Amino acid sequence: MIIPIIIFLIAIIAAFGMLFYRAWEIRTSRFVVKEEHENYLPKLSLKEAEKIALYVIKHVIQSVVVFVVKSWFLFITKTKIWIQNNSPKIHKFFQKKTCTDSRKISFVERAIIESKIKIKKVKEKIKKEHEEIEENNEVDKIL
Protein backbone atom coordinates (compact mmCIF):
# COMPACT_ATOMS: atom_id res chain seq x y z
CA MET A 1 0.00 0.00 0.00
CA ILE A 2 2.91 2.32 0.68
CA ILE A 3 4.60 1.75 -2.71
CA PRO A 4 1.65 3.04 -4.82
CA ILE A 5 1.41 6.12 -2.58
CA ILE A 6 5.12 6.82 -3.04
CA ILE A 7 4.85 6.38 -6.82
CA PHE A 8 1.81 8.70 -6.87
CA LEU A 9 3.66 11.38 -4.91
CA ILE A 10 6.70 11.12 -7.20
CA ALA A 11 4.42 11.48 -10.27
CA ILE A 12 2.71 14.55 -8.77
CA ILE A 13 6.07 16.16 -7.97
CA ALA A 14 7.33 15.41 -11.50
CA ALA A 15 4.16 16.92 -13.06
CA PHE A 16 4.51 20.11 -11.00
CA GLY A 17 8.19 20.27 -11.90
CA MET A 18 7.37 20.11 -15.62
CA LEU A 19 4.69 22.78 -15.26
CA PHE A 20 7.04 25.12 -13.35
CA TYR A 21 9.78 24.57 -15.95
CA ARG A 22 7.37 25.40 -18.82
CA ALA A 23 6.15 28.50 -16.95
CA TRP A 24 9.75 29.59 -16.40
CA GLU A 25 10.50 29.18 -20.13
CA ILE A 26 7.47 31.30 -21.09
CA ARG A 27 8.28 34.00 -18.49
CA THR A 28 11.90 34.35 -19.61
CA SER A 29 10.91 34.26 -23.31
CA ARG A 30 12.98 31.20 -24.02
CA PHE A 31 9.94 29.53 -25.49
CA VAL A 32 8.28 30.91 -28.63
CA VAL A 33 4.53 30.41 -28.87
CA LYS A 34 3.43 29.98 -32.46
CA GLU A 35 -0.09 31.01 -33.19
CA GLU A 36 -1.26 29.64 -36.49
CA HIS A 37 -4.76 30.45 -37.54
CA GLU A 38 -4.84 28.19 -40.55
CA ASN A 39 -7.87 26.07 -41.10
CA TYR A 40 -7.01 22.58 -40.12
CA LEU A 41 -8.00 20.10 -42.78
CA PRO A 42 -7.54 16.49 -41.83
CA LYS A 43 -5.58 14.46 -44.30
CA LEU A 44 -8.04 11.60 -44.49
CA SER A 45 -8.48 9.96 -47.82
CA LEU A 46 -11.65 8.29 -48.99
CA LYS A 47 -9.96 4.88 -48.80
CA GLU A 48 -9.02 5.40 -45.14
CA ALA A 49 -12.53 6.63 -44.32
CA GLU A 50 -13.95 3.53 -45.98
CA LYS A 51 -11.66 1.28 -43.92
CA ILE A 52 -12.71 3.01 -40.71
CA ALA A 53 -16.40 2.78 -41.64
CA LEU A 54 -16.10 -0.93 -42.46
CA TYR A 55 -14.28 -1.55 -39.18
CA VAL A 56 -16.99 0.23 -37.18
CA ILE A 57 -19.81 -1.50 -39.09
CA LYS A 58 -18.18 -4.89 -38.52
CA HIS A 59 -18.08 -4.35 -34.77
CA VAL A 60 -21.63 -3.00 -34.68
CA ILE A 61 -22.94 -6.03 -36.58
CA GLN A 62 -20.98 -8.43 -34.37
CA SER A 63 -22.34 -6.83 -31.21
CA VAL A 64 -25.92 -6.93 -32.57
CA VAL A 65 -25.58 -10.61 -33.50
CA VAL A 66 -24.13 -11.48 -30.10
CA PHE A 67 -26.92 -9.55 -28.36
CA VAL A 68 -29.62 -11.27 -30.43
CA VAL A 69 -28.18 -14.75 -29.84
CA LYS A 70 -27.75 -14.09 -26.13
CA SER A 71 -31.28 -12.77 -25.74
CA TRP A 72 -32.65 -15.68 -27.82
CA PHE A 73 -30.97 -18.27 -25.59
CA LEU A 74 -32.13 -16.46 -22.46
CA PHE A 75 -35.68 -16.34 -23.80
CA ILE A 76 -35.64 -20.04 -24.70
CA THR A 77 -34.26 -21.15 -21.34
CA LYS A 78 -36.65 -18.96 -19.37
CA THR A 79 -39.66 -20.20 -21.34
CA LYS A 80 -38.56 -23.82 -20.82
CA ILE A 81 -38.30 -23.27 -17.09
CA TRP A 82 -41.62 -21.42 -17.00
CA ILE A 83 -43.36 -24.21 -18.94
CA GLN A 84 -41.84 -26.85 -16.66
CA ASN A 85 -43.08 -25.06 -13.56
CA ASN A 86 -46.46 -23.74 -14.69
CA SER A 87 -47.76 -26.34 -17.11
CA PRO A 88 -46.21 -29.78 -16.82
CA LYS A 89 -48.70 -31.26 -19.34
CA ILE A 90 -47.30 -29.09 -22.12
CA HIS A 91 -43.77 -29.95 -21.02
CA LYS A 92 -44.53 -33.69 -21.20
CA PHE A 93 -46.03 -33.21 -24.66
CA PHE A 94 -42.82 -31.62 -26.01
CA GLN A 95 -40.46 -33.94 -24.16
CA LYS A 96 -38.43 -36.37 -26.21
CA LYS A 97 -39.76 -39.88 -25.84
CA THR A 98 -37.06 -42.48 -25.32
CA CYS A 99 -37.89 -45.85 -26.78
CA THR A 100 -36.45 -48.97 -25.17
CA ASP A 101 -37.77 -51.37 -27.82
CA SER A 102 -34.79 -52.32 -29.99
CA ARG A 103 -36.95 -52.78 -33.08
CA LYS A 104 -38.02 -49.10 -33.01
CA ILE A 105 -34.54 -47.60 -32.57
CA SER A 106 -33.46 -45.77 -35.69
CA PHE A 107 -30.37 -46.69 -37.65
CA VAL A 108 -28.45 -43.61 -36.46
CA GLU A 109 -29.32 -44.19 -32.79
CA ARG A 110 -28.30 -47.84 -33.08
CA ALA A 111 -24.97 -46.81 -34.67
CA ILE A 112 -24.33 -44.30 -31.87
CA ILE A 113 -25.06 -46.89 -29.18
CA GLU A 114 -22.81 -49.45 -30.87
CA SER A 115 -19.97 -46.95 -31.19
CA LYS A 116 -20.28 -46.05 -27.50
CA ILE A 117 -20.05 -49.73 -26.58
CA LYS A 118 -16.99 -50.17 -28.80
CA ILE A 119 -15.33 -47.13 -27.23
CA LYS A 120 -15.93 -48.57 -23.75
CA LYS A 121 -14.42 -51.90 -24.79
CA VAL A 122 -11.35 -50.20 -26.23
CA LYS A 123 -10.90 -48.15 -23.05
CA GLU A 124 -11.11 -51.28 -20.92
CA LYS A 125 -8.61 -53.05 -23.17
CA ILE A 126 -6.18 -50.12 -22.90
CA LYS A 127 -6.53 -50.07 -19.11
CA LYS A 128 -5.80 -53.79 -18.91
CA GLU A 129 -2.72 -53.43 -21.14
CA HIS A 130 -1.52 -50.47 -19.09
CA GLU A 131 -1.94 -52.43 -15.86
CA GLU A 132 -0.02 -55.39 -17.34
CA ILE A 133 2.81 -53.11 -18.41
CA GLU A 134 2.98 -51.58 -14.94
CA GLU A 135 3.00 -55.04 -13.35
CA ASN A 136 5.82 -56.12 -15.66
CA ASN A 137 7.78 -52.97 -14.79
CA GLU A 138 7.31 -53.64 -11.08
CA VAL A 139 8.46 -57.25 -11.50
CA ASP A 140 11.52 -56.06 -13.46
CA LYS A 141 12.35 -53.56 -10.72
CA ILE A 142 12.11 -56.28 -8.08
CA LEU A 143 14.39 -58.63 -10.04
What's the helix and strand layout?
Layout: H1 2-27, H2 46-86, H3 88-94, H4 107-142
Structure, explained:
- There is one protein chain.
- The protein is mainly alpha-helical and 143 residues long.
- Among the domains are: 58-95; 99-143.
- It is 77% helix and 0% strand.
What's a concise summary of this model?
With 143 residues, this protein is mostly helical.
End-to-end distance, in Å? 61 Å
> Over the alpha carbons, how many angstroms does the gyration radius reach?
37 Å
Arithmetic mean pLDDT: 82
Strand composition percent: under 5%
Query: Considering DSSP H and I runs of 4 or more, what fraction of the residues is helical?
Result: over 70%
Strand-and-helix sequence, N→C?
A: HHHH
The number of helical runs is 4
Broad shape? elongated
Largest sheet: number of strands, sense, barrel closure: none
Give the low-pLDDT segments: none
Secondary-structure-derived class: mainly alpha
The strand count comes to 0
